[in-house]
Design brief:
Length: about 130
């Protein structure tokens, strides 16, 4: 299915609108990109690697990770071979959020009113 730019934006608008209407946290674009990168790309994930992948500074990744960790969407684990390094991994709550968001995108793509709820508690952390 070939989408125009307008179709792509409309699809994204519908999915994001449905997410905002739900009880799920409102993630910033950066937080969502970090979460999706950790969840969908092969690891191990580090702050440095995520910063390079997304083309942003390490402090910006750290701030996004802080918010995602408060939501229990990611966890930080020490690297036993290099105690200066931390690995980032997704959590079941993070995957639940992403699966629900994916359903909103699919509903929007099929022309349905995306009214599902990404099932994760709303927090002011995002």
């Amino acid at each position: 299915m070939q989408l125009s730019e307008r179709d792509g934006l409309e699809l994204w608008r519908k999915a994001v609108t449905a997410s905002v209407r739900s009880d799920a946290p409102d993630l910033t674009a950066r937080q969502q990109a970090v979460l999706m990168s950790v969840a969908l790309m092969p690891g191990p994930h580090t702050v440095r690697g995520l910063a390079e992948h997304l083309g942003v500074a390490k402090p910006a990744i750290t701030r996004a990770l802080d918010a995602l960790e408060r939501l229990n969407f990611i966890r930080r684990l020490p690297d036993d071979s290099d105690l200066r390094s931390i690995f980032i991994e997704r959590t079941p709550d993070g995957m639940t959020y992403l699966r629900a968001f994916a359903r909103l995108v699919l509903a929007a793509a099929s022309g349905e009113e995306a009214g599902g709820k990404p099932s994760a508690k709303r927090s002011n952390a995002a």
